[in-house]
UniProtKB/TrEMBL annotation, chains A, B:
UniProt protein name: 3-methylmercaptopropionyl-CoA dehydrogenase
GO terms under cellular component: plasma membrane
Catalysed reactions, as listed in the record: 3-(methylsulfanyl)propanoyl-CoA + oxidized [electron-transfer flavoprotein] + H(+) = 3-(methylsulfanyl)acryloyl-CoA + reduced [electron-transfer flavoprotein]
PANTHER family recorded: ACYL-COA DEHYDROGENASE (PTHR42803), BROAD-SPECIFICITY LINEAR ACYL-COA DEHYDROGENASE FADE5 (PTHR42803:SF1)
Keyword Oxidoreductase: yes
Acyl-CoA oxidase/dehydrogenase middle domain: residues covered: 170-277
Enzyme Commission no: 1.3.99.41
Residues covered by the Acyl-CoA dehydrogenase/oxidase N-terminal domain: 44-164
Keyword Oxidoreductase: yes
Domain called Acetyl-CoA dehydrogenase-like C-terminal: residue spans: 480-612
Family in the record: Belongs to the acyl-CoA dehydrogenase family.
Domain Acyl-CoA dehydrogenase/oxidase C-terminal: 293-464
Function recorded in the entry: Involved in the assimilation of dimethylsulphoniopropionate (DMSP), an important compound in the fixation of carbon in marine phytoplankton, by mediating the conversion of 3-(methylthio)propanoyl-CoA (MMPA-CoA) to 3-(methylthio)acryloyl-CoA (MTA-CoA).
Length: 620, 620
């Protein structure tokens, strides 16, 4: 394009005022700092980590985002090489300790709140979604070993993995076993020394090989001899790329080979590998912990974290897309103001002045901020389980239940809407959005995978309706519905937000009613209606949760706004709080009503998609 | 991926039974064949063209789709080179006469219905959306010359352009003039010989240069001396890449240079150019026709066709994505049937058996078939204007009015939903959809531009609410609403479709009511509410139109089904007609209700997006 883009337009950025609002005004992180597991942390320490991690993301990771996309990864002589700069960024990331903020001090971590970890992970995911896959999976694999490994395993693996000396992956998918992970065929044969010979092929392994760390610790789902069929017979194994000695030094190679790397729509800086284990009968692994056939439940714990990270990727990339589109809309002049639309000589205005551009911007803003709030709501619940552990087990269970309930919402709604926001960002740019001089087309390509990996969004929806709704006798759902209802009751007469809160009340009832309907289908032998309707139900619940948290934020903002001193020095704070109000009203009045409609639609029990014969889809 | 894709899975395909249904059962093309302008055409000729053009699309264009994407275009020594095979495909396309099916016999065309032209253009757009840009724009440019050029211009340009000897483009956009085309700065200075010296820079010019034809005829919007500001002062010029002699031979170069080609998210086989006219003061053009300052209205005629083509690109690519996803879903085995979901040893089934996959497939099918029907509805109206011309001018006006009214719906809804279908197709594939071994990720990248070029979809929405609704004193809208109402009245008690038809009736009322509301805003000084709401209104009207045509198809299919002989030989026909029923019910009961909700939402007049200050969007 002849008006060459300012490189600043490609820059990753986040709104730190928004982060501060979430952490300290809406979710009151200070209430758990300085005590229990977070004794060493105060608001200043949190703010410093946020500021420094943001700086790191902008300066180190952001500039590698387009490079990683254009260069991609390369498989040469059996080794994967990451794009230029990735290895250096990996080293800087671990030197600064950004992956260990919430890890246990015992293993080199800093023992901070998970909320803080996720907050800074958003910066890194937004700055470079492909890069963050490598350390993100290493972190997740280490967490599994920390939760389920033997003491010796923890001692051997955790410091090196949290410290970035060794990477990590999770290896579930096989050619015939994607969503149907129970069909895995990879085998594990017990050896005389207690270890296992691993044999099989895994595909779509993110970061399955790379050159950032000296070793990679694969966590591999495999089936031991005579194990039950399906998911119940899967065990989880630690399978390093290079065998390691007791002192942590490297031994010989472990017969883990890279069959291929995929060429993808996006996240090209992340190597997606076909991995062959034991092609030459030389692959050895050790069981995570001491009991076989626990692989699925162990993997689920890892997946919880991974699924939050994917929802976070959705909002992170979407946020970057939104803020770049906003900058473009403020700079780009086109057309006269709507108030002068008939005057061909009227001055041209920045497109941010045009109603439809404002609509797109506010739509993006509301989805980004609402989903981000939902993620912080979740992590705040998680941090509470740690604070309450051993002190108030019942309350801790409530918080753990909310974590479990919200994970599928965060993963599926975060990824679906993340993609939608990127699409809207492209539209905001117009033609410029479609060309590679601007960052949004890459954001859109990168974001498409989020609805697929770590369990497709339908798997999330089935997790929600098939497992989470009934958990603890339905108490998790009741807890959620009760929290929303309490907010509605307290605020339905609010002078500014009242009509929006009323809409939230109707949405809450629609969710409750539809949950009962789903339960009825389970019991009335209408089982196929459940998966047919699960995605829509997940969306209903997500929209309700997001509207709730946006309205909650708006109420806090309006209260804070009242306390601001008059005058110009408060102008930017006032504008910030005003934005919160408009964001909540927009979402509640334009998006949230879908919940009511969805309940009505599901109530009709249209089963056309079940009734249509496979032959009727097309004659070819 | 280790299970390497069958190349057949990459193949373009269309459902010819569906095409036959549309042409002959739903839109009864035979009623206008063999008479008036279509005297030379019968159903057999139409069917033969369909079959052969489909074969050509599959065999010649389809295999170049991925090639064009991966190779892209190349600018070397001022000349653009298209991907390998494009030039040969261009030659074959014109040898076979596929671009001249509906062109005037006087200029080498075959004089067939526009409906037939569009039907076969769908195959070509679906098989290779990037390639078809080159001949598509040449066709559009030729049409403008045919409509507005002098006899000498027609004589000089039309045969060469319809015949593919020369290409063509439309040059509107400039760096500061995108949606705001009235801000164009390109100038035209009258020369003593009556021609004009052209000077200026145009950007985002599709097919702005290429190596397929020996010359390219650019249609350039420019402003003559002392012309009025804005769109009223724009004139349209014929500016060939190479000057031509009276006998059609080529003269010297015309000082049209390629400044750059864009690197894009998709349609990489289509060269998107920056064109500099008259950089060395050597660019000469001639006015289209004889009157200055008619450029916008002339360009609008060209844009009508171009906008239909873009909506068609949306449905074409979406249809290819749907049919590929369907094939994958029939082949790919994963997980047990929902009826055996608790049995880990149950046989694995093709994913087409899973309820959520069926939901995605039926959702895609309904959007693809509904929008395709809308396009054929439009072209059928257009063909009627030609049949009725000079015979029944009032009826001809009605049909022309429907064409005008439906163009923005086809362009915007076709492109938006085309992208949505591609997204759903990727999700149907799962991980495989994200990798380049399968065609859907390219479809999705290609499709993103359709909502942007030829007027962004907001420009379409403003065209609808700002121009089309009030055209002929509102008669076009009344005609449309009347047609829908008549269908509702005739079918609201249909035993199978009744409840869906009732929903259509409510949608029709919601559209009518919202149109009045928009009119009210114009009159009540609430002008900014109009652009704020225009996209949603366009979607409401499109959903209503699509549901109407799907239900109409279902009714025809159910009637036809009753007449089928019993027995196996009718099985595939029965399945086809059954599919029409389920498609219509699905769309009417799951998508169409949004129209009611949208009317309700617009009725609230939420203006958050207008009220929020620009500073409130973010603090960065």
């Amino acid at each position: 394009m002849s008006n060459a883009p300012n490189l600043q337009q490609n820059r990753y950025k986040a709104d730190l005022r928004e982060v501060r609002f979430l952490l300290f005004e809406q979710f009151k992180l200070d209430q758990i700092l300085g005590q229990g597991p977070f004794e060493a942390w105060g608001p200043d320490e949190v703010q410093m980590v946020v500021d420094e991690a943001y700086k790191f993301s902008c300066e180190v990771l952001g500039p590698l985002n387009a490079v990683g996309d254009r260069t991609g990864c390369r498989l040469e002589g059996g080794q994967v090489y990451t794009p230029p700069g990735f290895k250096e960024a990996w080293n800087k990331l671990y030197e600064a300790g950004w992956m260990a903020v919430s890890a246990e001090p015992e293993y080199g971590g800093q023992g901070g709140p998970f909320t803080l970890h996720i907050t800074i992970q958003e910066f890194m995911s937004g700055a470079n979604s492909a890069f963050i896959m490598y350390p993100g999976l290493a972190f997740g694999a280490a967490e599994v070993i920390q939760l389920f490994g033997t003491d010796a395993q923890k001692e051997h693996y955790l410091r090196t993995m949290y410290g970035g000396k060794w990477g990590g992956t999770m290896c579930l998918t096989e050619p015939q076993a994607g969503s149907d992970v129970g069909s895995s065929r990879t085998t594990a044969k017990k050896l005389p020394d207690g270890k296992y010979a691993i044999r099989g092929t895994k595909i779509f392994i993110s970061g399955g090989d790379h050159d950032c760390a000296e070793n990679i610790v694969h966590l591999v789902l495999a089936r031991v001899d005579n194990a039950p069929a399906g998911t119940k017979g899967l065990s989880l194994f630690i399978v390093p790329k290079v065998r390691t000695n007791a002192d942590g030094s490297l031994g010989e190679a472990n017969d883990v080979t890279v069959g291929a790397i995929e060429h993808k729509m996006g996240i090209n800086g992340s190597a997606t590998c076909v991995l062959n284990f034991g092609e030459n009968d030389g692959c050895v692994g050790e069981l995570v912990g001491t009991v076989e056939n626990q692989g699925m439940s162990q993997m689920f714990r890892m997946m919880n974290g991974a699924r939050i990270s994917v929802g976070l990727q959705g909002v992170a990339v979407a946020s970057a897309a939104y803020l770049n589109a906003l900058e473009y809309a403020r700079d780009r002049k086109q057309g006269p103001s709507i108030n002068n639309w008939k005057d061909a000589t009227a001055p041209r205005v920045a497109i941010v002045e045009h109603p439809d551009v404002r609509r797109m911007l506010l739509d993006m803003k509301s989805r980004v901020e609402g989903i981000r709030a939902l993620i912080i709501k979740l992590t705040r619940h998680f941090d509470m389980t740690r604070v309450l552990q051993g002190k108030d087990d019942e309350q801790a269970l409530y918080h753990q239940g909310q974590v479990d309930l919200l994970v599928p919402l965060v993963k599926a709604y975060g990824s679906d809407q993340g993609f939608r926001v990127c699409e809207t960002a492209i539209q905001t740019y117009g033609g410029a959005g479609y060309i590679k001089d601007y960052p949004v087309e890459q954001y859109c390509r990168d974001a498409k995978v989020f609805s697929i990996y770590e369990g497709t969004n339908h798997i999330q929806a089935m997790d929600l309706v098939g497992r989470k709704l009934g958990q603890r006798g339905g108490a998790n759902l009741q807890g959620f519905l009760g929290d929303v209802a309490a907010f509605v009751k307290a605020n339905e007469k609010h002078p500014v937000l009242g009509k929006a809160v009323k809409e939230l009340g109707e949405a809450q009832e629609a969710v409750a009613g539809t949950a009962m309907r789903l339960l009825g289908w389970f019991q009335m032998g209408k089982m196929p209606m459940v998966p047919l309707s699960a995605n829509r139900f997940l969306e209903m619940m997500s929209e309700t949760a997001v509207a709730w948290l946006l309205l909650d934020a708006a109420k806090i903002a309006l209260d804070a706004q009242e306390k601001l001193p008059a005058g110009d020095e408060s102008a930017s704070e006032r504008a910030f709080y005003e934005g919160k109000k408009h964001t909540a009203l927009y979402y509640a009045l334009n998006v949230l009503p879908h919940v009511r409609l969805s309940a009505e639609i599901l109530g009709r029990e249209d089963s056309s998609a079940l009734e249509i014969s496979t032959e009727s889809f097309a004659t070819v």
